[in-house]
What we know:
Elements: E1 3-8, H1 13-24, E2 29-36, E3 44-47, E4 50-53, E5 55-56, E6 67-70, H2 73-86, E7 90-93, E8 124-126, H3 130-146, E9 148-157, H4 164-176, H5 211-223, E10 229-236, E11 243-251, H6 257-266, E12 270-272, H7 284-287, E13 293-300, E14 307-314, H8 318-335
Parallel strand pairs: 1-2, 1-6, 2-5, 6-7, 7-8, 9-10, 12-13
Antiparallel strand pairs: 3-4, 9-11, 11-14, 13-14
Helix pairs in contact: 1-8, 3-5, 3-8
Bound molecules: 3-amino-D-alanine.
Amino acid sequence: MGYKVVVAGATGNVGREMLNILAERQFPADEVVALASRRSLGTEVSYGDKTLTCKDIEGFDFSGYDIAFFAIGSDATKKYAPIAASQKCVVIDNSSLYRYDPDIPLVVPEVNPEAVDRYTNKFIIANPNCSTAQMVVALKPLHDRARIKRVVVSTYQSVSGTGKEAIDELWNQTKGLYVPGQEVEPKVYPKQIAFNVIPHIDVFLEDGSTKEEWKMVAETKKIVDPAIKVTATCVRVPVFVGHSEAINIEFEDHLDEAEARDILREAPGVMVVDKREAGGYITPIECVGDYATYISRIRQDSTIDNGINLWCVSDNLRKGAALNAVQIAETLGKRCLKKG
Ligand code: 2RA
């Protein structure tokens, strides 16, 4: 007996990846239903070698379904997640709506798998922000060994994190710079993204940080340890898929680079690519379609007593969203949600 599964938002970048990964990992599903908004009704989406025709999420009866993956944004989630949850269908939600609710588990399976046991609180489990997910996969094994005091992170986030329109804007704007008369003005972003970087993701907050930066702080504390101090600068870069992060970590206890490298080499979900030579490191183009959180440039920070610098890259549509959501479902199955 397998699970009866729903993917809501099946026509979006993340929803499509959820279906791809459910098939790739042969998640034990007896039935998979693709849901979309009315404007995408009837759209066909791939699920392995099958083709699913999207049904309307409006009025959908979730009763009898075990797990619903949601990739529909906070507004739609606010409307439909309570309906699914009330019908005892566990919602694994990729939006930020429930991440900060103390009663709702925020889960990265390599870091806090036990948190899924609390799904019965509200039958909702939150998926973290993409830039948080890859970072905490790297932080957790190091934190367990030498207790992290402070993290300073700069992100280099791809446009697929914004969505399909942003991918199109980068593509068309780049082409337009070479074809007179085809210039493309900024629309999705406040400034040109082609051959440029934009130090602004999500809205600005009172203190001058952005909500994306606030998310990395709040979510790292909830997933790993509330005692960890985090400061982030989140930047949009002209890359289609793959988020990169330069992470500086200060520890309570001494940890040298060799031991840090050994720990990361053994860490779940981590792939270390770290040679001190041209090309001896990972770049976002190389991580696309992969499951791993890649770590490179591991080195001592000699400006502080117990500091390590590292470079972290992962596919933001996969570990940053769809893969992490499917791994949450796998963890649920292993720990507490019996099939059928
Ligand atoms: C971004 N993390 O990259 C945000 C949402 N996916 O735009």
